[in-house]
Amino acid sequence: MSIIIAPSILSADINRLGDEIKQAEDGGADWIHVDVMDGRFVPNITFGPLVVKAVRRMTNLPIDVHLMIVEPERHLDAFADAGTDHLTVHYETCPHIHRTLQTIRELGMGPGIVINPGTPINTLEELTHDFEKVLLMTVNPGFGGQTFIKSMPDKIRRTQALLHEKGSTATIQVDGGIYSDTIKDCYLAGATNFVAGSAIFGYKEGIAAGIKVLRQALEG
Considering the domain 4-219 in this protein, what is its CATH number? Predict the structure, then answer.
């Protein structure tokens, strides 16, 4: 199964966003990840559909949007219109999650579901054929640059086992504290899609070098 590296623009220099996205694309990024926070579900406030629309003009890479917002069902059309390719919503914010995932698919986006570190994986059991990827948060959502929660590889393994048991073809994405010293454990546990912010946009030798280091860690 192919590996996807998705740099998160949460850690990019917004004043140079177009240039930094181009560096990521030229450096081998597979997707561009956009973290949308509303200041209610999580403490921070970040981007909205207008930023996604701007990013769409900056790159031909798939745009992966992670909605950390309450009532995400009210904004699905706006993110579809902005050019989102993959849209992921939190189980914790969707009382009618099955309907929300169906609507995302109907709007032409790849539906994804997110669960927080403290949310058990059995919440996914009735939904395994309704999403294309499950995002396991490996930190508590809301801020970039957090420390990876060491128990998460076990949760990844259990999630992969559940997907296999249900006959689901969904992939596992991880987000939070993904660096060269944590990415391999997540991969060996079953994750194939990696969101990284600080490890790429904050890497001292440059964005392309940051992506290369992550891929080398996977191969090592």
Answer: 3.20.20.70
